Amino acid sequence: MNPAAPAALQIARTISREDLANLPIRRYEGRIVVVATREELEAAQTDLRHETIVGLDTETRPAFRKGESHLPCLVQAATARAVYLFQLRRTEVFPVLAELLADPRITKAGISLKDDLRALKQVFDFKEQNMLDLGTVARSNGLGQTGVRNLAGILLGFRIPKGTKTSNWAARELSPAQITYAATDAWACRELYLRFQNLGLLSSPESGAATHA
After folding, report:
1. Three-state DSSP state, 39
2. CB 30 within 8 A of CB 187
3. Which residue has the higher pLDDT, 43 or 212?
4. 19-23, 28-32, 152-156, 204-208 — which is least confidently predicted?
5. Partner residues linked to 34 by β-bridges
6. SS3 string of 43-103?
């Protein structure tokens, strides 16, 4: 038990592969928008501007050969009302994403955000503010696992399937399975933020406080 963790936190620190496999599967069942038109982009921007907490994730085309790597192809942003999928082959989405990432009023919550941001800066320019890495929050509160799937199992009580993780995210048309998978990850990050908040684990400076550029 981590002595620095709040005494009120009565949750498991880790979850076994077997216990995770026995949890019910959950996928995001709300509104998903694969942003493809000017109207959809403007609507997404308006929704994001009215949000205070956004779940954030990215997807990258998998690399199967040694030394091979790719830049992100997709950014997923979850609000309370929808999840927006921004395909990075559409350069018109860059200003909207740059605005979101730089907005100090909106907490962007995700996993391994430093890596995601470093890669995204090779695609378009932005200056991030108010980013919260949920893995850092988990570690600072004594949890031994920090991936989105393990944290969802520990804190939210459900299992996120990962069958399409290594699919081709650079495809011009994403499959229904890809769309649901991508939306679920961003939604889960937002739900994890809210769960940490409800448990009172976001108040201390040591809890992975939001980073500012």
Report:
1. helix
2. yes
3. 43
4. 204-208
5. 85
6. HHHHHHHCCCEEEEEEEECCCCCCCCCCCEEEEEEECCCEEEEEECCCHHHHHHHHHHHHC
196 vs 191: CA distance, rounded Å: 9
What three-state secondary structure class fits 23? coil
Q: What's the count of helices (H) and strands (E) in the chain, helices before strands?
A: 7, 7
Report how far apart, in Å, the C-alpha atoms of 136 and of each of 79, 127, 154 are: 21, 21, 15
Tokens at residue 141, please? 């509160």
What letter does residue 25 receive in the DSSP assignment? B
Question: How would you classify residue 142: left for phi > 0, otherwise alpha for psi between -120 and 50, otherwise beta?
Answer: left
* 132 sits in which H/E element: strand 129-133
Give the three-class secondary structure for 32: strand
Separation of alpha carbons 76 and 207, rounded Å: 24
Looking at residues 95-113, what average pLDDT do you find? 97
Measure CA of the first residue to CA of the last residue in the chain; give whole Å: 33
Q: What is the pLDDT of residues 143-154, one digit of tens each?
A: 999 999 999 999
